[in-house]
Each structure stands twice: as structure tokens, then as C-alpha cells.
Amino acid sequence: MNTPATRDAFEARLRRIGAERYHDLHPFHGLLHGGQCSPDQVRAWVINRYYYQSRIPMKDAAFLSRVEDPALRRTWRSRIEDHDGSDGNEGGIARWLRLASAVGLDPDYVASCAGVLPATRFAVDAYVRFVRERTLLEAVASSLTELFAPKIHAERIEGLLRNYEFADDSSLSYFRKRLTEAPKDVAFGLAWVLDHADTADRQDAAADALIFKTDVLWSQLDALHSAYVAPARIPPGAWRPGEGLALARAS
Ligand SMILES: O=C(O)c1cc(C(=O)O)c2c(n1)C(=O)C(=O)c1cc(C(=O)O)[nH]c1-2
Predict the structure, then answer these.
(1) Domain membership of residue 85 as a residue range
(2) Does residue 1 form part of some domain?
């Protein structure tokens, strides 16, 4: 049997996956953060990314339903509240819909998930299914893309504020809040994975789960780029510019 890598070497392997494959490297993020997206391209991103946001608490609920350890459940359940809200905290989904309004979309339209690209659905649904069906180690490891998220959230806040009129403290509050939520989640998740990936096979499985998750994120941006960046190829049934606008702006 292969001997496992040391804790430090294994952590370095996970971080290398992020350095090579995380979606901060995707050209669509370059366009978005650099101010080169049209209002409709920003809207398409907001609509499709909402689908990811809306499924995150569902995948965390799927995870919780499989955990037998009350201590692990107690720690993990705050992830659901971070998105769904709780007393005194409006939650990430409501904050995302504030962003939708700020870019001129009807939040009810966005929340309906009508117009989400088929490939976005396939990728995101695959993530929920992965967490429901694979080992707990693979499920936790797949959330570790969040190791790399604070950097992209900080870049996004800075880039959107600099380049787009809709961007202000209210419309970007989702990302500002994630800057404190994500590090707490991921510190726990990383320690848990390092503790539980105690054989070479388990380390390989955890690394593969993280790679799978980088693919889930990358595919969503591929779908957006293909549909909405010239030469745009919007699939049948997906959002078309002019649809789902807030009434005041549509007239
Ligand atoms: O904006 C981003 O690039 C980004 C990436 C990720 C991620 O790496 O999966 C998450 C988020 N944001 C995020 O806001 C979020 O709540 C979140 C939860 C999770 C997860 O897998 O449980 N990832 C992410």
C-alpha cells in the first residue's frame, strides 16, 4: 500500500489544484472584473450564478442528512443559515437578489430560475448529487474551493466598484459578507479533510473531489461565455436580453 503524503505536503497538493484550476483563471471573470461586460452579460452572470447560490444550502442540507456526528452537524449547519438567513441576518440569497435588482432584473424572475442555462443546471446539479452520494470525506473536500474564494471576492468587489455604475455597498453586500463567512467555513473544512484523509487512497479521493469541484465552477463560466460572449450562442429556452427586467427599467 502507498504511504500517505505528510499533512503539509497533502495541503500543498490541494492548494496547487486551486492555483492551476480555480475559476479565477477563467476568461469570463477577466471580462467581468475588468469592466468589459455589457449590462446584459452582467445580467446573464447574475441569473446563472443565482442557480449556484440557490443550490448551495440544498447541498449542505443533503450533506447534513448523512452526518451521524452531532458535533459535525452543529458546525456545518451555519452554512445553511449563512445563505437562507436567520434572525437578524438576511442571508446570502436575499443579498444576491439585491444584486439582481441593482442590475435591473426582476428578483422574482431571477428566483424562479427560468432562463438558467442548461449547462449551468447540469454542473450545479452534479455538485449536489456528488455531495449526496459520495463519501463524507469527498463531500467536505469538494467544498474546499472556498479556500480560493476570498481572493476572487476581493478582486470582484474592487473590479465591479471601479467599473460599473450599479456597484455599491448595498448591491455588493453578498461578496463583502462572504469575506468573513468563507474563511471560517474553510478553516474547519480543511482541518477536517487533513484529519480524515489518512491513507494515500483517501488523499487521492479528496484531491479528485476538489478537482471535480473546480470543473463544476469552470463549466458554469464556459456555459456563460459560450451563450453570451460573441459569437453568442444562446441555447433554446435560456434567458435572452430584454427578458426578466424590473418593470421600471423595461419600459
Ligand atoms: O464567487 C465565487 O467565486 C465563489 C466560489 C465558491 C466556490 O469556490 O465554490 C463559493 C462562493 N463563491 C460562495 O459565495 C459560496 O457561498 C460558496 C459555497 C461553496 C460550497 O462549495 O459550499 N462554494 C462557494
Answers:
(1) 7-231
(2) no
Average pLDDT over residues 183-194: 95
Which of 138, 146, 180 maximizes ligand 1 atoms within 8 Å of its Cβ, making it the mutation to test the pocket? 146
Which pTM does this prediction carry?
A: 0.95
Buried b (16+ CB within 10 A) or exposed e, 40-55: bbbbbbbbbbbbbbbb
The atom of ligand 1 lying closest to the CA of 24 is 3
State the distance from the centre of ligand 1 to the C-alpha of 75, rounded, in angstroms: 18
Q: What is the ipTM of this complex?
A: 0.94
Give the pLDDT mean for 226-242: 97
3-state SS record for 77-97: CHHHHHHHCECCECCHHHHHH
Query: How many structural domains comprise the chain?
Result: 1
Whether 184 is covered by a domain: the verdict is yes
Ligand 1 pocket member 26 (CB < 6 A) = no
Give the tens place of pLDDT for each residue, 237-248. Answer: 999 999 999 975
